[in-house]
């Protein structure tokens, strides 16, 4: 059966909005001066993706918002990695038809229809020769050593990367990806977001083994987001950070879950406390004691 790309994208976004999540609302801004100004961008053609493609590509879980077609990857001296799936983008095309009227006159009719093609993020490619990406501007705020120490003690296998226009923890590589510091309006919002992602990282299989695969918008997904938000609030208080809630869009999910399960908030709070205890442990032995206690 032929896939209706427009419906696929529309259903996904409607589903997320109905569940109270607006994935493009975030406490940082798009940096100017970068290719595409931080928006989904095609470095081969210079295209800045607009309309639905702007939101759709912005929702994809990649550090850099740069996308190319299969052929463009080859034009840039590289290739798409094996077994990578393309991401559909859509555009309007117009079909025109010439007919002859009853009086012999020429009649032109036209109708618009949606077509699509596939692109790949540059992380799905290898060997690409890309334009030089300028360094983001520096920031003049004082570092929060308490928060930085928490991230350092995570000992992330994939490290902490500042790039692109998204913030997330990627379990598959054990890495936190954050927008550049300069994209945040304040030191507080930067660290509140970083601590939120650090709580997610605490649930990795190599740590507290809390994270389980969950569909976006599901109760399990909302539960993990609530754990991260509660844990971040605790850590912000401990570190003296007064940042904004990053995931206010999940409130609808949380309220529904609370209606369905009166123990939802108690369970999430307990997991958040475990995450905080783990993240603020001062030694590897203390980390081990916490992990063993949870496994018992």
Verbal overview:
The chain is of the alpha+beta class and 296 residues long. It has two domains: 32-126, no CATH class; 145-295, no CATH class. It contains nine helices and ten strands. It has helices at 5-18, 51-58, 70-75, 145-154, 187-202, 219-239, 251-260, 264-279, 284-295; strands at residues 41-42, 47-48, 67-68, 79-80, 87-100, 106-121, 125-126, 159-162, 168-170, 175-178. It has a three-stranded antiparallel β-sheet with strand order 3-6-5. A three-stranded mixed β-sheet has the order 8-10-9, covered by helices on one side. Helix 5 crosses helix 6 (219-239) and helix 8 (264-279) packs antiparallel against helix 9 (284-295). The protein starts with a helix and ends with a helix.
What are the defining features of this structure?
alpha+beta; elongated; 3-stranded antiparallel β-sheet; 296 residues; 3-stranded mixed β-sheet
Helix and strand element order: HEEHEHEEEEHEEEHHHHH
How far the N terminus sits from the C terminus, by CA atoms, comes to 49 Å
Largest sheet entry? 3 strands, antiparallel
Helical segment count: 9
């Amino acid at each position: 059966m032929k896939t209706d790309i427009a419906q696929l994208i529309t259903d996904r976004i409607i589903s997320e909005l109905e569940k109270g999540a607006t994935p493009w609302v975030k406490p940082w801004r798009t940096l100017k001066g970068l290719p595409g100004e931080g928006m989904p961008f095609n470095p081969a053609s210079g295209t800045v993706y607009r309309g639905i493609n702007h939101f759709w590509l912005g929702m994809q879980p990649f550090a850099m918002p740069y996308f190319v077609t299969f052929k463009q990857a080859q034009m840039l001296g590289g290739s798409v990695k094996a077994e990578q799936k393309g991401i559909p983008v859509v555009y309007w095309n117009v079909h025109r038809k010439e007919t002859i009227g009853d009086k012999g006159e020429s009649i032109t009719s036209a109708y618009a229809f949606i077509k699509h093609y596939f692109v790949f993020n540059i992380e799905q490619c290898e060997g690409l020769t890309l334009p030089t990406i300028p360094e983001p501007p520096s920031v003049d705020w004082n570092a929060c050593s308490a928060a930085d120490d928490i991230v350092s003690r995570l000992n992330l296998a994939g490290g902490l990367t500042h790039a692109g226009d998204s913030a997330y923890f990627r379990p598959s590589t054990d890495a936190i990806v954050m927008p550049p510091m300069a994209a945040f309006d304040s030191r507080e919002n930067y660290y509140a977001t970083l601590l939120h992602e650090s709580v997610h990282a605490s649930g990795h299989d190599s740590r507290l083994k809390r994270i389980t695969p969950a569909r976006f918008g599901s109760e399990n997904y909302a539960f993990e987001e609530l754990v991260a938000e509660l844990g971040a609030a605790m850590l912000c208080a401990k570190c003296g950070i007064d940042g904004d809630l990053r995931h206010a869009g999940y409130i609808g999910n949380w309220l529904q879950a609370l209606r369905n399960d009166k123990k939802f908030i108690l369970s999430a709070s307990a997991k958040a406390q475990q995450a905080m205890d783990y993240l603020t442990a001062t030694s590897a032995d203390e980390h081990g004691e916490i992990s063993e206690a949870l496994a018992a």
